[in-house]
Structure formats: C-alpha cells, structure tokens
C-alpha cells in the first residue's frame, strides 16, 4: 500500500532528520510508530500524508511514486488518507457535528445524503450527546474523539494518528485503541504514532521504531 525506499528528509539547511528510511505498510495492516521525542515521528506522518516531500529517496503510495504526481493527483491521493493531528485542529465556530461533516461539505456533497452517516459515526465514537456543542466546551478526550471521527468520515484507506492518546486517561486510551483496532478489522490500514509503552503493550502489532534517523520494523513475533 505504501513503500518508502531510502527516504531522507532535512528541514532547510538543517541536519537530516530521517536517513535511508525504508519500510512497507501492507494493506490492512496495523502498526505503532514509536521512538524518542524528536526522533521524527510527526515528520514521518507528514511524509505519509504527502504534505512534506522527501529530500531524497522514493515514496510509493497506492502504487504511485509520489514525486511524479501532479498537484491535483496529489490532492486526490491525499483524500484516501485520514489524519488525526496532535493538536486536533477543530474549528471552534462550528459544532461537533459540523466539524465532522466538514470534509464531506468541502467535497460538495449534499447534507441530506451524509447526515445520517455523520450522526452514526458520532455515536460510534461516543459523542452522540455532544454533537450540537462547540469544540471549546468539549473535554480533551471528547476533542480527541471528534478529531478521530473527522478523519474517519471520508472512509480513508489509510489512517494516521499522531499521539492520539496523549491527552486522555488510561481508560479512554484503551477505548480509543479498541476503536482503531475495530477500524483496522473493517479494512483500513492504521499507523499510530506514540511513545506510550503501556498502550503498545495492550495490542501485539507491528512497530516501526524510529531512532537516529532510521526506522527498524519489529514484527510482533520478534519481541513477544
Ligand atoms: N518545521 C520544522 N522546521 C525545522 N525543524 C523541524 C520542523 N519540524 C520538526 N523539526 C525538527 O525535526 C526533528 C523531528 O521532529 P518531529 O516533530 O518529527 O519529532 P517527533 O518524534 O514527532 O517528536 P515528539 O515525540 O516530541 O512529538 C526535531 O529535531 C525537530 O526539531
């Protein structure tokens, strides 16, 4: 589904943050992306979301080498990927319902066609009672779930999440993890960036470990 070949990334004239990074994300796979703070997890997610270009190496996404894509094709490809940002990025003047429906509205879809789907997703993430309130009155965990729902409403083939359990208590973190696992079982590939060991211990998934600019892939069998 995604393949990185000897990818390197530096910001401006700075040092290489990522060096010779090579790995595959198979279809229907579930993996944690882990490593110390500053190792480059967010940078790698931005490369996967195609909002950052590698300074060297090749990235194949859905069987296309991304440097060959036009702006339009890049935007089309990005539509197949959902992302949950570390800082949520909800719009404070829109209700929870409107925030989650926004990607569909932007695509020009008719509300009559998507309304029931948005409401169902809101219930699925446990925000059924909060759909008419504005983000500033949501708790951290509720904002987190709203950000996840907004990423899911477009039914992405690949879901990326940056520290999605960073602001929630352990019980909610487990619940969110179950939600990602359920999503993966329904066919979406999932990448969760986290440095929360206790979260990773809850589910025996692949781990992409980032350290010193390199990625090593650990399959569950190799560390259990
Ligand atoms: N826009 C930028 N311009 C310059 N340097 C950057 C930029 N974004 C990140 N960096 C640097 O790249 C390195 C990797 O940062 P990144 O945010 O990807 O790490 P991370 O593993 O996600 O960290 P954390 O776990 O603390 O969120 C850091 O040294 C950071 O200072």
Give your account of this protein's structure.
- With 224 residues, this protein is of the alpha/beta class.
- The chain folds into 2 domains: 2-80 and 156-223, Rossmann fold; 91-155, no CATH class.
- It is built from 8 helices and 10 strands.
- The protein has helices at 41-48, 71-78, 96-106, 111-124, 140-152, 170-185, 197-200, 220-223, and strands at residues 2-10, 16-25, 30-34, 56-61, 64-65, 81-84, 158-162, 189-193, 206-211, 214-218.
- A 6-stranded mixed sheet has the order 6-7-8-3-9-10, sandwiched between helices.
- Helix 3 (96-106) packs parallel to helix 5 (140-152).
- The longest helix is centred in the C-terminal third of the chain and has 16 residues, at 170-185.
- It is globular and about 45 Å long.
- Adenosine-5'-triphosphate (ATP) binds next to helix 1.
Descriptors:
224 residues; Cell division ATP-binding protein FtsE; single chain; cell division; ABC_transpr_LolD-like; 8 helices; alpha/beta; ABC_transporter-like_CS; Rossmann fold; 4-stranded antiparallel beta sheet; ATP-binding; 6-stranded mixed beta sheet; binds adenosine-5'-triphosphate
Average pLDDT over all residues:
93
Q: Tell me the CATH superfamily of the largest domain.
A: P-loop containing nucleotide triphosphate hydrolases
Q: What small molecules does this complex bind?
A: adenosine-5'-triphosphate
Please give the CATH class of the largest domain: Alpha Beta
Uncertain runs with pLDDT below 50, 5 residues or more? none
- The tally of domains stands at 2
